[in-house]
Specification:
Layout lengths: L1 H22 L9 H10 L2 H5 L20 E4 L2 E3 L17 H10 L14 H4 L4 H13 L21 E3 L19
Parallel strand pairs: 1-3
Antiparallel strand pairs: 1-2
Helix pairs in contact: 2-6, 4-6
This protein binds heme C (HEC).
């Protein structure tokens, strides 16, 4: 009897441990995905990165899977990327640290600097904790296959629909040469 009670206790402890383990996010996650979801909802990520949002009809089935609407300026033509966990067309292969680096310094894992349309210069002000929370949330997004046009260098006739940014007027000219895609 004593032995059976002892065994029961071990089983209860083990079951408790399993329940705790199942509820804890993967060890690699440094961020709070619930807070990340909230931050993404107020930081405008979906405006640019979800098809249809700028037309008043976001396609929630393809939430954050990138947009066909390009941004054409001195950096060439860029498209808001697919942020879902799809391995081929999204950022499924990126680590959370890769995502934090991109949203806070504009640098992708391949070293390319993101165009200033992606507001990483503003997101650089987020705390590390919040940046990791955003990354943790993006990692929970189900994969959506949605391939966007690749970066088009400046001067190439743009493919597809895009918003056009003419060269900056003198009073608003950047003080340094425009950095971004392709530089
Ligand atoms: C004003 C539009 C806009 C907003 C708002 C915006 N992005 Fe972006 N984002 C872009 C564009 C455009 C690109 C592609 C830039 C390029 O390729 O140079 C991009 C690229 C990215 C990338 C790089 C992905 C890749 O495959 O290269 C990440 C990660 C990203 N955005 C995350 C976010 C997150 C998270 C938010 C909200 C916190 C956000 N973005 C808000 C426009 C936006």
């Amino acid at each position: 009897m004593k032995l059976r009670n002892g065994l029961g206790l071990v089983l209860v402890v083990a079951a408790g441990w399993l329940a705790v383990t199942a509820a804890t996010p993967p060890k690699s996650s440094k961020g709070d995905a619930t807070r990340g979801k909230y931050l993404v909802s107020i930081m405008g990520c979906g405006d640019c990165h979800t098809p249809g949002t700028f037309y008043g009809a976001p396609d929630m089935k393809r939430w954050l899977s990138g947009s066909e609407l390009g941004w054409n300026g001195p950096w060439g033509v860029v498209h808001p990327a697919n942020l879902t966990s799809d391995m081929e067309t999204g950022i499924g292969k990126w680590s959370e640290d890769d995502i934090v680096k991109a949203i806070q310094t504009g640098v992708r894992p391949d070293g390319r600097l993101l165009a200033p349309i992606m507001p990483w210069q503003t997101f650089a002000n987020a705390t590390k904790e919040d940046a990791h929370a955003i990354a943790a949330y993006l990692k929970t997004l189900p994969p959506v296959k949605h391939r966007l046009l690749p970066l088009q260098p400046p001067g190439v006739k743009p493919e597809g629909a895009c918003m056009i940014f003419p060269p900056p007027p003198a009073w608003d000219a950047p003080r340094t040469a425009p950095k971004g895609a392709g530089h």
